[in-house]
Amino acid sequence: MVLQPAERHRGDWSHRRLGPWCSPTGSPAPLSCETGCGEGTWILVCRLLVPTQVSLLSMEEDIDTRKINNSFLRDHSYATEADIISTVEFNHTGELLATGDKGGRVVIFQREQESKNQVHRRGEYNVYSTFQSHEPEFDYLKSLEIEEKINKIRWLPQQNAAYFLLSTNDKTVKLWKVSERDKRPEGYNLKDEEGRLRDPATITTLRVPVLRPMDLMVEATPRRVFANAHTYHINSISVNSDYETYMSADDLRINLWNFEITNQSFNIVDIKPANMEELTEVITAAEFHPHHCNTFVYSSSKGTIRLCDMRASALCDRHTKFFEEPEDPSNRSFFSEIISSISDVKFSHSGRCIMTRDYLTVKVWDLNMENRPVETYQVHDYLRSKLCSLYENDCIFDKFECVWNGSDSVIMTGSYNNFFRMFDRNTKRDVTLEASRENSKPRAILKPRKVCVGGKRRKDEISVDSLDFSKKILHTAWHPSENIIAVAATNNLYIFQDKVN
Amino acid sequence: MTRKSICQGTMLTRGLKRKCSEDEAPAGPLQRQSLLDMSLAKLQLCHMLAEPNLCRSVLIANTVRQIQEEMTQDGSWSLPGPQTAGRLPRDHLVSTEVLCRSAWAGPAPAPDPADLASALQAVPATQVPRAVPGGPWDRAVPGESQGGFPRSLDQVFGTLESHGPGAVEELLSDVGGSYCDLDAVLTGVVGGAKSGPEGLETFASVAAPPRGTSCKADLGELDHVVEILVET
Description:
The complex is a heterodimer.
Chain A: H1 30-35, E1 42-49, H2 54-57, E2 85-90, E3 96-101, E4 105-111, E5 125-132, E6 137-139, E7 144-146, E8 152-155, E9 163-168, E10 173-186, E11 210-226, E12 234-239, E13 245-250, E14 253-258, E15 266-270, E16 283-288, E17 295-300, E18 305-309, E19 321-323, H3 336-340, E20 344-347, E21 353-357, E22 361-366, E23 375-378, H4 387-392, E24 402-404, E25 410-414, E26 419-424, E27 430-434, E28 451-452, E29 462-463, E30 475-478, E31 484-489, E32 492-498
Parallel strand pairs in A: 28-29
Antiparallel strand pairs in A: 1-32, 2-3, 3-4, 4-5, 6-7, 8-9, 9-10, 10-11, 12-13, 13-14, 14-15, 16-17, 17-18, 18-19, 20-21, 21-22, 22-23, 24-25, 25-26, 26-27, 30-31, 31-32
Chain B: H1 3-18, H2 29-45, H3 54-74, H4 88-92, H5 96-101, H6 113-120, H7 136-140, H8 149-163, H9 165-176, H10 182-186, H11 197-205, H12 219-231
Helix pairs in contact in B: 2-3
């Protein structure tokens, strides 16, 4: 498949022709281009632990060692469930990386600036800001707890000095403003230096306060709260290319919001049947087209994707396009429907393709061909014979995400045993890598992993039955223009970079 | 590591040997049965969670329906009464509502205003058999009646009395449902009502439609499902 040059659009990467394995400067790194997804091309940049709660630090831990700004945090064995990372997202320049966790916190990492003295430190990400985005809530009407877990984070493109992001839990979307403050006013007339009010009678002269530099402070403030619009659990949010609207999707409905208006939203998709008994299908993911602000797609639990045009009607219950692959009768089983359920859908950066992730595969669809995907990649087909067990322990319901690289030439998704997979669409080669603590030495080269499906197990291979199904990589992110990836494994965030000679 | 994740890590080998020792492609009747048991148990487990996953519930319910469809076609189930070919499979399948009823967690409905309206009219329950006496279905199917609304409430109270305060909790917590529509909620269906006399009063004041009226399960199937639930 020949790649066309990316169309010009607002993103800052589009005008650069990126090969699959370009070094950050834009020129192809010779070794990488040849080997593509080959061995030895990915190195660990840093492993970051989401800062745990203070109460845990007191458990025989030396607090001084918890230097949060240090890229290499000591291994913390008291990770709580609240620290489990539930979403990862680079911003549009790749300078910032946001993570959300089950405890409702958002942690933003910033890329280390390149400096002549410490060239090797470039590419490392350090904590930039941490804030509590969502709190656990109690719905008194239904007597149910609303989880504070952050389901998704989406960045807005930067339009001024501040950064804006959307974060959502099951019910409420919030717009956060993250801004820096490195100056403060000094020389007030009515306050003294400690902030105490001065008696006006004692003031004999007036002065103009001046701005003095101070230690950099990053503050996050909630600017909008979009609440009470979803009866069911929100699974996706997507910022529109007009940067004025965004959508939020739950199991049965999709709403369109304007950033400025929090007390109203338009319902654009509603698949709730009049009789809930007839419910057999739910919405699993949704995304706006990267360039056409009237177009969006949503995926379902039955393995179908619908593309809708908001110009056609106010309620987009009638799709413009319907993508579905006919079922393979030879592979039919009681689990066929469950494994066909799409857990993630992503437009390519070019806007010409969509990628979907179901339980065992990743598929790439051309928008102009609805009856089957153009490419199908097996993520972990060796699990096909274990579906019954995976159904029993609920792993079959795990929702894996998938991501494109900046040039749409490589796709990545997670698997079990802390494995994640990359597929090069051009060379058709693929690689399995592992995000593990054993490889945590800085600049350690990742060794490709292999799962043995039967027969004689070779030395470095791992057999299917030895896979740890509690270690799953559900969330990954790819830098918008460089070969830098972020992989979330429970409470660890791994950042890997393509090795540059 | 949560308990669940630990279980996931180790359970694979257990499950592998116990239930799925072979390729799952040819599903014999025994495997089909155990799959059905597992699925119903999962749906039942739903109501222990704070707010269960709708996607998961729908997928499990669809799987159950699929198994039942196949079992019906195989003739594994004995179906009483006259059989009309063609019309058979759908009518005798357990609806999603019934499947999720004990959990009241899946796509089971809380009464919508539209449902309330229809429920208040006399609903001909042609397909609906008499409620199975005793067993968990009694609690879960309070509304199965030959008449309209008031009769069902009597049955509800009758059921509640026979089972004691625990049943009240469970039944009333069922009423709330995880997925009530806001409109339904606002019409007075109280979620998670507390036990005791005031709970009953609240329930009485609510025009909750008999949940069983739309159930199309036949007696044979209910018996079968009751067996499963009682065993698990």
